[in-house]
Structure prediction request, 212 residues.
Amino acid sequence: MRVGILGSGLMGAKLGTLFARAGHEVVFSYSHSDAKLKQLARKAGKKARAGTPAEAAQDADAVLLAVHWSRVDDVVQQAGALSGKVIVSCSLPMNADDTGLLIAHTSSGAEELAKKVPTAKVVSAFGTVPSEVLFDVFDARRKATRPSLVFCGDDKKSKKVAAQLIRDVGFDPVDAGPLRIARYTEPFTLLIAQLAYERPGGPELAYRFERF
Ligand SMILES: NC(=O)c1ccc[n+]([C@@H]2O[C@H](COP(=O)([O-])OP(=O)(O)OC[C@H]3O[C@@H](n4cnc5c(N)ncnc54)[C@H](OP(=O)(O)O)[C@@H]3O)[C@@H](O)[C@H]2O)c1
Prediction:
């Protein structure tokens, strides 16, 4: 697949690198530093390059939206034509100092994003794990049991694309249903963040659902 990365920070840089390692063509975009984007691309290998948000979105089978909530409008505008595109979003609707959700209960960041780009197909994924665990999950992908990763969205084909990317990073995709379920997955991330950053053990934390 061709995957455009919109936001090459903690999440975008790591996920983009892992998508490239998994064999996808990746374009890193949206940073204050073009040099950083180029270095990321160099390190991620031959399948990766740096570009503008518009270049990242062009011809992409999926774009990963990985920016702070306050930057969503800007990066979406810079990306240009997103009509018909699969947008896999890990972005959470956090306030400016990242202490709470700006949107919850009656809507979600993912649903508000879908309203901003109504002709695109939004899937909410990857936002429920800390960036610190991503490389470890990838390295452990051949183990018998994989950590879960919940995702949700309204479009079946786009969810298949997202599920493939989730598998490629080393998780077991758990389809939680329609996009409005992001109302539950987004606050769930605050629990994960509490365990990762405020409790002992370190932020290299993933989760696994089991049925009995
Ligand atoms: N970090 C996590 O563990 C985690 C986990 C789950 C969900 N999330 C969510 O995922 C999203 C991304 O988080 P993150 O931690 O990856 O954020 P981040 O590290 O701050 O990365 C954001 C990216 O956007 C770029 N950017 C910001 N303002 C810009 C501007 N004015 N012009 C150009 N580029 C700009 C940053 O540039 P620079 O490269 O110059 O910094 C960076 O590449 C957020 O919505 C967050 O809530 C994060």
Remarks:
- The CA atoms of residues 2 and 13 lie 15 Å apart.
- The chain has a mean pLDDT of 98.
- Residues 182-198 form the longest helix (17 residues).
- The pocket of NAP is lined by residues 7-12, 30-33, 36, 66-69, 71, 90-92, 94, 127, 130-131, 189 (CB under 6 Å).
